[in-house]
Amino acid sequence: MIAVALLALLQVTAPPGMLTVRGATEEVTVPVVETNAGPAVRADLVAAPLGGRVRELAGGHYGVSFPGVEFDLVDQVPFALAGDEVVPLAAAPFLDGGRLYVPLQLVAETLPLHGRGVYYDAVHSELRLFGTSSPLLATTTTPILRVPSRAGTSARTAGRAAGRLEPSRAGARRRLVVVDAGHGGPDNGMTGPIGGKSKISEKDVTLAVARRLADALRARGVDVLMTRTRDTLIALGDRGRIANQNHGDLFISIHVNAANMAWKEPAAARGFETYFLAEAKTEEARRVERMENEAVRFETGVETSRGDPLNFIMNDMAQNEHLRESSDLATTIQEKLGMMHPGPSRGVKQANFAVLRTSFMPAVLVEIGFGTNPAEATFLADASRQRAIADAIAGAAVEYLAHYERRVGAGGR
Ligand SMILES: [Zn+2]
After folding, report:
1. Collapsing DSSP states into helix, strand and coil, what is residue 132?
2. What's the gap in Å between 280 CA and the centre of ligand 1?
């Protein structure tokens, strides 16, 4: 359903009929052909400027290579194999005049997610290697200026909370942190603990901690927007869109971890970890990524992130500029949580979370503990401990924002 909406959007957004492919040394314009299954492009023409190619393999398979990925495709089969992952396609690849054609979606959406350093710019209908110049890339590095929401409130107020964010100069705007409580509505997230009598649901814990985090941030002079304040399901893509539309400075998603039942002693797993968006580096990171991305299956029907697919395909490029910052923020959060959390720090990790993918700002996902561990489940459900977790994360966010303010301020804007 997302793919269909995506292609519909592409047709109105992009100059029809042409796709620009900008590689390291050459730029090629590739015709986009309209089929009754949607727009398609000749695979070899798109792959070549990016340094890839099309190989004919045994058994009717084709290998289409791009930086960082080779898709295994079969004529008339609407799925691609990327490594060992099966990826659904908007339409089946087909042969015409002995050439393999693939749906535009494969190169515009799937390739940026699975390849390395390839970005699709829907506005300019352009596929390019990251690092090649583009007008859009230049604009996304400029911080968005906003009118201060409450001009001058905090600058002269005495007796403020420790660690409060001070506007560095007159007219500096207040910062906005988007707080995202994971899961909700029919999507409970994880439930635990293993073998425990009283069960906790991830969606309740995340909402409680998110509310306390919002309070803690507001007490430090930061504006807050919550993606949900009730027990409702918000599509993963919409969470990021909410953040973008409101020009958030930071996006913090709160989650509760669950042990892998295949582990030797799953109930014993404890601790906290913070993720930022990037390709998942380890099998464990991929497991958590799969688990958190699963919420997508609850997103059926008309409420599903309509209008969002455009963000979805443009986001990789915008997000990449925030990787460093997101990683810094994740590190600060881990440090602060380490001062109050009874569990071990499991470190800063990277994974490709759908919820982070759609936010055009530094974004992190915090797994505040293991709900599968009986002691940690009790800890996570306790109101005063929730406040302490929220304080730790708020402290990290404010420290990070102050640091960022100094850096941006030094650069002048
Ligand atoms: Zn979760």
Report:
1. strand
2. 16
Quick: pLDDT tens for 353-411: 777 766 677 888 999 999 999 999 999 999 999 999 999 999 999 999 888 777 665 44
Ligand 1 centre to CA of 291 (Å) is: 7
pLDDT band at 273 (very low <50, low <70, confident <90, very high): very high
Q: Report CA(253)–ligand 1 centroid distance (Å).
A: 9
At residue 158 the predicted structure's pLDDT band, cuts being 50, 70 and 90, is very low
| 14-68 pLDDT, tens digit each | 345 888 898 887 888 888 888 888 889 999 999 999 989 999 988 788 999 998 8
Give the residue-averaged pLDDT of 238-257.
Answer: 86
Looking at the predicted structure, is the pLDDT value of residue 313 above 70? no
Report residue 362 as tokens.
């530094």
- Asked if 194 and 259 touch (Cβ cutoff 8 Å), the reply is yes
Mean predicted confidence (pLDDT) in 286-305: 65
383: helix, coil or strand?
helix
304 alpha carbon to ligand 1 midpoint, in Å? 19
Residues 6+ apart with CB under 8 A from 240: 251, 311, 315, 355, 356, 357, 358, 359, 360, 363
Q: CA 374, CA 387: separation in Å to the nearest integer?
A: 20
Contacts of 183 (CB under 8 A, 6+ apart): 189, 202, 203, 206, 233, 255, 295
Report the separation in Å between the CA atom of 292 and the middle of ligand 1, taken as the mean of its atom positions. Answer: 5
Assigned token pair, 97: 């005049």
- Cβ-based burial of 2 (10 A; exposed 0-12, middle 13-18, buried ≥19): buried
From the CA of 85, how far away is ligand 1's center (Å)?
A: 22
Helix/strand/coil for 376: helix
Ligand 1 centre from 16 Cα, in Å? 40
Q: How far apart are CA 234 and CA 216, in angstroms?
A: 23
CB atoms inside a 10 Å sphere around CB 232: 15
Angle at 202 between CA 197 and CA 204, to 5 degrees: 90
How many whole angstroms from 354 Cα to the centroid of ligand 1? 12
Question: What is the C-alpha separation between 172 and 154, in angstroms, rounded?
Answer: 11
**C-alpha pair distances (Å), 184 with each of 9, 180, 395:** 28, 11, 26
366 CA from centroid of ligand 1 (Å): 9
Distance 336 CA to ligand 1 centre (A): 21
